[in-house]
User: Fold UDP-glucose 4-epimerase from Streptomyces finlayi.
Amino acid sequence: MPGSSTVLVTGAAGFIGSHTCVELLEHGQEIVLVDNYSNSSPEAVERIAKVAGRPPAAVYEADLLDRRALGKVFEAHSFDAVIHFAAKKAVGESVEQPVDYYDTNVGGTTALLRAMHDHGVRRLVFSSSCSIYGDATKVPLTESDPARPTNPYATSKWLCEQVLSDVCRRLPELSVLALRYFNPVGAHPSGLLGEVPHGVPDNVMPYIAQVAAGRLGRLKIFGDDYPTPDGTGVRDYIHVMDVAEGHRVALDHLDDERGMRVLNLGTGRGTSVRQLLAAFADVCGAPIPYEITGRRPGDVAELVADPTAVARAWGWATTRDLTAMVEDAWRFQQINPSGYGN
Ligand code: NAD
Ligand code: WQD
Assistant:
């Protein structure tokens, strides 16, 4: 990890960004944070510094779509690389508000590229998503499997990958890594950082955590008639600390080759909703109430990563198992019953 270089982190106060900032600070990396707090709060930045034991070099409240504000950030620092987390990420909301999703996710990425280009910054790690595989016909999924995005959120990520790939073809000095995360869950083991959904969680892990804590009545299992071993949806849950570590390692490999590279970030292990519920019940010591309801529109049966490419490229693999994911999510829920606001 280069001690003297500085990395810009966009969307730094969010779920994955905040954990990655801690990982980078703890490994001696200087970082500059940008967030507009549209889906996070400045409290996350306070906690990043507390957990890491030292503050970032600078923190900016700025919207990526505000090109003047973004330009000022690039003028004030000399960046060695950028990690670009900032985006809108709720699949259901993206169906209702497609323009907002293309504006923020694609427009935010091109605004960032513009600023990087203007200031000679040529290395980027981009947050992509397993959702671009859509209704996959086979698992595990390799990076060369076809993209079939089925909603504006997933399409926005796919479009970003296309833009980055095309720009890289034409500007050979660029190095871009697009990391397709599967289902990041869990929290920092300190219990100080975690996932803070606004309102009722869309995603299964924070939903189960709130049921276990008595804040929600019961989990609705969205369908038990999928062609999976127990009929419930299967996903590749990955500990957010493994995702964070993956970004630290990615920075060390940006220069392995010029151009655009796409890599899955997953464990290669599938877990069904029923298995996740059972693991949570084990950890919290009580059964979790649930009911079976109909399928959620747009859901797919199974999404599991083939993590071979990242292992080959970096000699790296995830290390945290499902129990660690659940234990850390549960600890965070207990310590922060109302998120960062309590
Ligand atoms: P998050 O919402 O917690 O974090 C995103 C951060 O970006 C937030 O702090 C938000 O305030 C900020 N932001 C949004 N729009 C902005 C803008 N225009 N300008 C500046 N800041 C802005 O989401 P996350 O779970 O940490 O996800 C991080 C990235 O990873 C996103 O790009 C997301 O699409 C991608 N991703 C997430 C998952 C997941 O399940 N969490 C899976 C695959 C990919
Ligand atoms: C997981 C499983 C549900 C909630 C989402 C995004 C994807 C990516 C990761 C950003 C499924 C079931 C869920 C509930 C349930 N994010 N479920 N009851 O949909 O796999 O992926 O996060 O890039 O783009 O779509 O995650 O946690 O919502 O669902 O039964 O209340 O849990 O059907 O099988 P998903 P999830």
User: Anything to note?
Assistant: The first strand starts at residue 6 and ends at 10. The pocket of WQD (ligand 2) is lined by residues 89, 91, 129, 131, 183, 202-204, 207, 219-222, 233, 235, 273, 296, 299 (CB under 6 Å). The longest helix spans residues 98-118. Residues 208 and 219 are 6 Å apart (CA to CA).
